[in-house]
Amino acid sequence: MAFWFGLSSRSMEETSATAPSRTNERPATSRPSSVIETAERRTSGFAIGLAAPGARVCVTALKSAAPSLEKRLEAMGIRVGTALEVLQHEGGSVIVRIGTTRLALGASMAHRVHVEPLGLH
Questions:
Q1: Are 73 and 109 spatial neighbours (Cβ–Cβ below 8 Å)?
Q2: 10 Å Cβ neighbour count for 72?
Q3: Which of 89, 7, 11 is nearest to 48 (CA)?
Q4: Could you tell me where the DSSP H helices lie in the chain?
Q5: What are the tens digits of pLDDT across the range 32-72?
Q6: How far apart are CA 26 and CA 43, in angstroms?
């Protein structure tokens, strides 16, 4: 069967056999360790808004899509590894103590701070 737009009289089978394969497959690659560590870190702990008043907790992750919110929390002194004491819950907001400093976190900020209870040693 010949095509009218300039190809020779090669058959469709011949054309498809010589044409390069076009698949959407991507080569299997391993994910960088930083991606795996980030995913593991995000799943650890629970939101600080779920901690009981009077609980002493340690920050395990700052879960946020916006880097500006993480910078804001770090500027307030809330970093991964920081020990906090939950003082009060009002609605969704939380009041915490870091050392001698008291901070109020709004509901959206409190939702993004993940903590684990501090063990008694």
A1: yes
A2: 14
A3: 89
A4: 12-18, 33-43, 67-75, 107-112
A5: 544 444 444 445 789 999 999 999 999 999 987 788 888 99
A6: 28
